[in-house]
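ok trying this again, last paste got cut off
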Amino acid sequence: RKVYAAGEKVWFKAFLVRALNNRLDTASKNLFVDIVNSNDKVVAQLVLNTLGLRTDGVLSLGDTLSTGYYWLRSYTRQMIHSDTAGIFLQPLYVINLGGHEGPGNTQQEG
């Protein structure tokens, strides 16, 4: 899914594979998953243990998030230090129907 209401949960399952051979990557211990707003501010975060191949999880969207675009992002420590092209990004659009919009996301029209 790509559209969520503020306050919903984002369920996911991740597969950490090597780009060269598409085999499971068992060298990385942790997989970091977060949701960021358009200012690259983390609004939800989770760390998964990849050694046990437990790469499914859930992140809760705050009910005060502003309507706008956010990104689900996942990466390993190695990706941050040497291979930022391997960082996974999935756009999400959050709609706040309750009128409780907070400072989570500032969108510019234009």
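PB: full thing came through this time. The CA atoms of residues 27 and 51 lie 8 Å apart.
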